[in-house]
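Section handout, structural biology tutorial.
Before the tutorial, make sure you can parse a SMILES string by hand: atoms, branches in parentheses, ring closures as digits. In the record below the ligand is glutathione, and the chain has 333 residues. In the tutorial you will relate the predicted structure tokens back to the input. Do not try to memorize them.
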Amino acid sequence: MGLLVDGQWQDKWYDTKSTGGRFQRSQSQFRNWVTAEGNAGPEGQAGFAAESGRYHLYVSYACPWAHRALVMRALKGLQTHIGVSVVHPHMLENGWELRDDFDGATGDALYGFSKLYELYLKADARYTGRVTVPVLWDKQRETIVSNESADIIRMLNSSFDALGATPGNYYPPALQAQIDAINEPVYHRVNNGVYKAGFATSQPAYDEAVDALFQQLDALEQRLAGQRYLVGNTLTEADVRLWTTLVRFDPVYVTHFKCDRRRISDYPNLQGFLKDIYQLPGVAETVNMAHIRHHYFRSHPTVNPHGIISIGPQLDWQTAHGRERLGERHIEQ
Ligand SMILES: N[C@@H](CCC(=O)N[C@@H](CS)C(=O)NCC(=O)O)C(=O)O
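Predicted structure of the complex:
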């Protein structure tokens, strides 16, 4: 685990001294936007034109943020238009490594780099910051379009439709306010909440994070009692964003990040929701549990010094979820 400082790699764990033991996630820095025609992004970001074969995703199967991008790529049927390189699950002194000596890890399909930070340096030789996945890479300009998953999934959702993407709008204009409203607490209390609990280095920091996490999961359980998805019966990006954390919860976060008040399998509605999305076409193939479990248990020596991988629960997400009773799934066109 480390970061680049003015183009130099430094092996450093997260600094929680100045924040009372609280983990703070840094902001992503590459924030350009792929649009259908190459026009500017929604907030004026530099535009890159959508073209088949031009963009490449660097992901980790372990990472919930990168997983969002893989799910959206599958829902939109973009597998033939956007290639993928998968990092090795262990993230240690060199950060993410582009090795292929673990089933499912591909190495670097474009440059043969062995470390992800080399790709960041190709985009910006003096980059300062963390070296994270996902990365959306432009093979034409040889630079990073974006390393922010929240933005990348919106680009995949809407910018590639003219190239023959699978129809479906997971961030439709009429629902954007509702999607944004639920994304906010889900991000802070759940997606990032599990990390805040797991990486806390003081009791108050941990207590705050787990309290907020389980309050939010309880609220989501209630919300999903009367509707199939987070925004009515329409499947949206908000569901994808919650789902990648739920998938990792019972097999990893309960033990490794000490999120052990309840399991997702103790929440009937969240568990049904998890299965419902898992069973969508193309989605189960994006879940690689060996990468998920090896990554977390082996990559955080401050949390799990001996790297023992726990036995873990038996998961059965292919069985009936019963969520049809709440109504038919709607996908906005
Ligand atoms: N805000 C980013 C966060 C991405 C992120 O933090 N990814 C983690 C893996 S789960 C990572 O690459 N961490 C490496 C590090 O922090 O050095 C996004 O959503 O794209």
